[in-house]
Design goal:
The complex is a heterodimer of chains A (about 400) and B (about 160). By secondary structure, chain A is α+β, with helices and mostly antiparallel strands. Chain A has a single domain, classed as Cytochrome-c3 Hydrogenase, chain B. Chain A is built from 16 helices and 8 strands. The longest helix of chain A is centred in the first third of the chain and has 30 residues. Chain A is globular. Chain A starts with a helix and ends with a helix. With about 160 residues, chain B is of the alpha+beta class. Chain B is built from 3 helices and 5 strands. The longest helix of chain B is centred in the C-terminal third of the chain and has 11 residues. The chains are: A alpha+beta (about 400), B alpha+beta (about 160). At the A-B interface, helix 2, helix 9, helix 11, strand 6 and strand 7 of A face strand 1, strand 2 and helix 3 of B.
Chain lengths: ~400, ~160
Amino acid sequence: MSSLRARVDPHLDIDLYDADADLMALNMGPQHPSTHGVFRIKLFLDGEIIIKAVPYPGYLHRGVEKLCEKLTCVQITPIVDKHDYVAPMTNEQAINVAFETMLGVEVPRRARWMRTLLAEMQRVASHLLWLGTFTLDIGGTIGGGASVMMYTFRERELILDCFEALTGSRFHYNTHCVGGQRHDIPEGWAKQVRDAFTHIQSRITDYVEMCDGNEIFLIRSRNIGTYDADLALGVGLTGPNLRCCGIAHDLRVDRPFHAYDEIPVNVAVAEGGDCYARYVVRVAELKESCRLVLDIIDGIPEGPISSKRGAKSPIAYKLKAGLQGYTGIETPRGELGTYLIGGGGQRGAAPYRCKLRPPSLHAMSILPWALVGHTVSDTVAILGSLDPIMGEVDR
Amino acid sequence: MDELAPDTRAALHAKFPDVIPAEGDVDSQGPVVPADQHLAFAEALKNAGYRLYISCVGSHWPAAGDDEEDRYEVATVLRHPDDGKVFWWRVSIATSATVPSLYPLFGGADWQEREQFDLVGVVFDGHPDLRRLMMPEDWPGHPLRKEYAIDTPHAPWR
């Protein structure tokens, strides 16, 4: 098994593998509860050991990049909400920051602080959902995983309530626009957020105890799905999936967007690059984001929430034809980037080409390396530890 | 696009004087690199620390006149993981030509180039397994090409 892990070739010619071996091809998915969506992997097995894995994404492809060529930035925002449906807030931010950067639109300080706050709240909600489903994946009821899932979902509900009070919807908020925010903070909201996050903060130590004190959890996550930093960088892993192999790259610190230049963030890093290291990074980020939310909520400056209030026509935000550029921000899953070329439909108000760079797509493309040498049951743990959202992978 | 560090710029200028000028601004839209230098340019950047593979973006540009040919433009985005600087460059080719694959340098190019082949139609030379990534294997045409109308009818079953 170790020799297999030492020389992984994702494009291994299966006919050249040991002629005496009794090989089997096994399809996991597209409808498999542990694939976190509609996703298929074809596994080539020697006994129970995976010797080659061929993922097949695309079952959820909705042709969003084609749609974007006909839509203005105002119309694109509610569509990108549906990509990463576990963290829609940061998805909206990514596309709006991209348009703002390309157009040179200023965002008022209050709006930037609000965006920072919403991004951190969304990170907590997203990581809570991940922790719940991951423990469910690798432990199930026997490993105690089911109980962690119930608790994390209960806590996540508090955050969704906060979002509902601010924007009117629990998912798919459409609260960001070019130049700032659509909804200002209502009365009593700060207290609601403070109460929710003080509660969540006090609960995180319980989850850590439930996981770290669980033998099954540790056995099933340590030294499973290991990759090194060079491979992770080459494949384009970002976020916790990259920081789990010792690289302290976080756009919030390296390339501050929103108000991160005013708000210091401690970047969580772990060594090892296995499923357990990814768990360690995400739990540390949970704690850090809770701290940030409680810091930010008391410090939001007064002022306008949008610099473009009253701009009625989205044509006002027209990218110059042929102008192109890439902008990326850090979301709970890593770097969500947008490559825009100006001059598309609606008399040039839509982009000519809008390429979205979802962090989950890159996370999934490491599977042919990460799965080799492991067993079928480890596939579930490795897949879960990468925190993929299929809506985002396939777009 | 972020500025290149002075020593990186000097090293790139020495190898690719037509792409990276010694002084003045580098094209903020991303410099255009000849297709035959694409792989070497990527390698030079990787050696300069741009090791994080971000994205590959293909776009289709229909010909303006009858005597011209449709073109593809392929932009590649890389990031420096230590300081977070981002850099991209473009390769412009006729639709009948190919672009060298970056798979030997970046594992992530495997799926990204497959996606651009699938949706835009760019053919990457040297890619180990150039199949469709998003669309079904037997899908007709490449959806992100400009002549592919957004309301192209298709059967809901195959």
